[in-house]
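WARN  no MSA supplied for this record, continuing single-sequence
INFO  ligand: zinc ion
INFO  echoing inputs
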Amino acid sequence: MIQKRPLRMTRQRRIILDELKKVKSHPTADQVYEMVRRRLPKISLATVYRNLDILSGAGVILKIESGGTQRRYDGDTSDHSHIRCVRCNRVGDVFVSPVHVPAVDESQACGFTVLGHRVEFYGVCPECAREKKSSRA
Ligand SMILES: [Zn+2]
Ligand SMILES: [Zn+2]
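INFO  complex generated
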């Protein structure tokens, strides 16, 4: 597990956390910036980035990293996985118990020290599925 660091809750962090908890859209840092700016007009994008890093480092929010796409953030830290739309990159929640992955040691991983693993589902979101159907008609 990731080591949780003690966290000092500044006003900026509280507002960032608050905004993130309101949505289920798994926003990117840029989108979080747009949301937070309505309440903190003077905040900079760099500050939002830094605070998102600190909040996810402390385990207060989740950082969702997936290959090649922009990092996204989740205010819901309960045990869940994610599904990404292959068409529009929208990220949704998948509420299943964690998938069992066998322990891997260095000799099985080309000498890499294994820190963790990621399970990501992918598919087509309802909006994109609907679009495909209507364009066919
Ligand atoms: Zn989609
Ligand atoms: Zn989520």
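The pocket of zinc ion (ligand 1) is lined by residues 85, 87-88, 90, 125, 127-128 (CB under 6 Å).
INFO  checksum written, moving to next record
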